Amino acid sequence: MTDIQELIKGFQRFRVKSFEPNRELFNRLAMQGQTPHTLLIGCSDSRADPAILTDSAPGDLFVVRNVANLVPPYETKGLYHGTSAALEFAVCNLDVHNIVVLGHSHCGGIKALLGGYGEHDEGEGFISPWVQIAAPARDEVVHRWADSSIEFKQRACERVGVRVSLNNLMTFPFIRQRVEEGRLFLYGWYYDLENGELMQYDPEKDRFYDLYLGPASETES
User: Domains in the chain and their CATH numbers?
Assistant: First the structure.
């Protein structure tokens, strides 16, 4: 069986296990439109699917995925603004209550940034300028932990990169206004692939802490 046939089989399982038992929900979403409560900006990495990691139902999340889960700073002079357009739609049109930036370990985009990808004519010219959005994270990590291993720098840069994206979110006037009015909340998360741990950024202490509280009780709602 080919990879594409596996995907088709997967869709057939989805129809049986998810769509048919929840046909009313899917019909309501189709007819009444979407009202997601959270915009989640995640990485394109196939190992860190936001809907799977959060066990979310259809309609819960408005998801933007790009290389290294980056948010560019606000600007209107460029030609293409895929991520910025998604921010505008989610915040101004869908009126989401939360924005989550979800980073993860072993991120290829951050590895490319730290390794200077594109400096010697690698690639086709798209990856290098994009990951430069997180250049402040790289510069901070290289300066603060100059003598640390490349593995340590990688994980540090992945986390600092989340902070850079959170800061960039606040450069968008329509986001800043809603945050300051208490209508919109920003969160930075970091997913550890090998340990299955999810951490959240604490801006007051400038650190990440573990969100995992143990297996949910069967009696919990």
Answer: 1-33 (no CATH), 36-210 (3.40.1050.10)
